[in-house]
Amino acid sequence: MPRRRPALNVIHLEVAAFLAIIGVSWGDELFHLSRSVFGGGASSNWQEAAFETLVTVAVAIPTILLTRRFLDRLHHLEAFLRICAWCHRIGEKDRWVSLEAFFEGRFDTRTTHGICPECAEKLRREA
Fold it and tell me: Of 33, 62, 94, 119, which sits with the fewest C-beta atoms within 10 Å of its C-beta?
């Protein structure tokens, strides 16, 4: 089954990227990074950095929320097993395997067979 860990990594990377943008904005104001890179005068404008931070946060929040929603939906859809309606084999990538082989290969779980109470009762009625 797909794990949720990679989805959280995507969210963490997005948050880190937006924090880096905010860090560059404030780094420019505090340490005059643009002057070091492009030359020019050393003028500080902390109001501009605050505005850039607000704009970045305003873009970050819906972006992260929509990404989270998309990843949750993707995880939900990937969690479905494809099962053949006729033979009940399970579709795994490009091949179809028996239920027993699927559990043994995917979960390292051996299976055995039994009969549930409903089927046992049905068999007793038919006999």
Answer: 94
